[in-house]
Amino acid sequence: MHRKTINPSPFLYILLITLFLSGCGSRETLRGVFKKETPYEAYVSSLKSAKLDETAVGQDWMAAGQSALQDPIPVTLPFKETGYFPADKPRALGYQVEAKRGEQLVVSLELKARQTMQVFMDLFEMGSDPAAAPKHIASADSTATTMTYVVDEDMAHLLRIQPELLRGGTYTITIQAQPTLAFPIPGKSSRHIASIWGDPRDAGARSHEGIDIFAPRGTPVIASVDGVVSRVNETPRGGKVIWLSDLNRGQNLYYAHLDQQLVSAGQRVSVGDTLGLVGNTGNAKGTGPHLHFGIYRYGRGATNPYPYVHQSAAPIPAVKVNAAHIGNWVRVSSKMANVRVEPSAKAALHTSLSKNTPLQVVGAADSWFRVRLPDQSEAFISSSLVEGIAKPIAVKKLKQECPLLDAAHPDAAQMDSLPAGAAIPVLAVDGAFDLVRQPDGRLGWVQTAE
Question: Which segments constitute the SH3b domain (predicted)?
């Protein structure tokens, strides 16, 4: 059964806000004393205290938050999207990103709105069980516009962004993955890594527990973190080595095959301080000078250093579409158009749509529109496959009086009644329904005759 939707009146807005403000004073419940709530949870508690969760708009707001957790959009980093939060129709964003231990996720949010509004940013671990609820791991303050999180385990992470009730405006969200450690050889980057984590060693008897960065002999090797030098010694395998204790992250950094060691045990160092010089001592004799760099977590052993030091060379993609379409309707302009689960031609197919299918643009990333489809799902379509609806595709003369509906469904609410003989511009077609424009400029839906 299709639920009828009617836009709340200004009076209802005022009533809801009054109820909310009156309920905020009673937020310090006994539960709040003993349980530290996230900003999002505290806000939900306030809605419930004010009984706004019993209203249609309050229920829609909470449903939007749950939908963002259940059906996030998968994105590849770095990612940037511009879009619109409508004040009268609650919306939440859900992004799924694949994250690696040792990198940090950096989220930046820009807002343009007539009124100041709180926006809730929450990060979750998705885990390996698709049936399990995402695990909440971090929140930003509701007035913050940035959030940074150091990833602890390799897994998919989910970011949810949702504004407070009855507040709207445009947003621009940027998500990046950045290294948590300075690259151990100045002037070099992950492009200079010649042997990676897991490469076979000793004819396959063991695997490589680090990364090898090649550089000329005598090139300075620096501290990737602030820390304390815990060991300076020489071993048959590593040659001249230095161990640097990273107390803040609970791990040791291992520098091997050095030509010279320029620090001593117990010495405190800062990021960028020179520890030694590149060489090929130990079992690296016979190979070109390079640094073997490893990371060993306290009590957990070796881990892949690559995500800790890798700085992506990919630029943040600019939004290249006509932003005037955001928040408005467009229609498919090609004979058939593929809609993707993320803004890439290589992404999985969400669905295919025929010419003149109407789509509501809710965001834009790179050269793609994020659109709300007729089934209310959201996905991405190339901006080259759609066009605006200013010019009608046809003009139909009604043979009889016809109801004007607020959605493309027979049970949708009736907005008005169109008289027989009226000439109605048709802007798009969704199955048995035409999207039409009235003389006063309002849009609505007309069911075509069987």
Answer: 337-386
Q: Considering the domain boundaries, does residue 389 fall inside one?
A: no
From first CA to last CA, the distance across the chain in angstroms is 21
Q: Which domain holds residue 244?
A: 190-309
Q: What is the pLDDT of residues 335-369, one digit of tens each?
A: 999 999 999 999 999 999 999 999 999 999 999 99
- Our count of domains for the chain comes to 4
Mean local confidence (pLDDT), 416-427: 92
- Alpha-carbon gap, residue 196 to 93, rounded angstroms: 36
Say how far apart CA 129 and CA 355 lie, in whole Å.
39
Same domain, 97 and 68: yes
Cis peptide bond prior to 78, omega within 30° of 0: yes
Task: Give CA 138 to chain center in angstroms.
Answer: 14
Residue 184 lies in a domain: no
Instruction: Give how far Cα 256 sits from Cα of 51, 201, 229, 249, Å.
Output: 63, 16, 14, 21
Which amino acid is it at 115? Q
Residue 280 to residue 216: CA distance in whole angstroms: 10
